[in-house]
Amino acid sequence: MNWNTIESGWTQYKGKAKEQWSKLSDEQIEGTAGKRDDLAMRVQEAYSVSKDEAHRQIGEWQAKQEEKPAAKQA
Questions:
Q1: Are 30 and 15 in contact (CB under 8 A)?
Q2: Residue 71 to residues 9, 12, 23, 25, 74: CA-CA distances in angstroms?
């Protein structure tokens, strides 16, 4: 899945991100606003991993995400 899809629909994906990185608070997850680099920085800090490792984890998580259906228009 394209990261732009995740970023633009962050409200739908942030719960799954919280499940993946439970050391991050809701505020930290919300504060990233779906920006990949911001999420990587928070993962790096919370889990004491390298920048490359944080991006690797995010890439794996991203690959597991399913596109959420867009809200239907009436």
A1: no
A2: 11, 11, 30, 27, 9
Give the C-alpha separation, 70 to 11, whole Å: 12
Asked if the model's pLDDT at residue 1 lies above 90, the reply is no
Helix (H) or strand (E) holding 60: helix 51-64
What are the phi and psi torsion angles at 66 (to 5°)?
A: -105, 140
CA atoms within 13 A on the CB side of 74: 0
Q: How many residues are listed for the chain in this entry? A: 74
User: What is the tens place of the pLDDT at every residue in 21-74?
Assistant: 999 999 999 999 999 999 999 999 999 999 999 999 999 999 999 876 654 444
Which pLDDT score is estimated for 67?
75
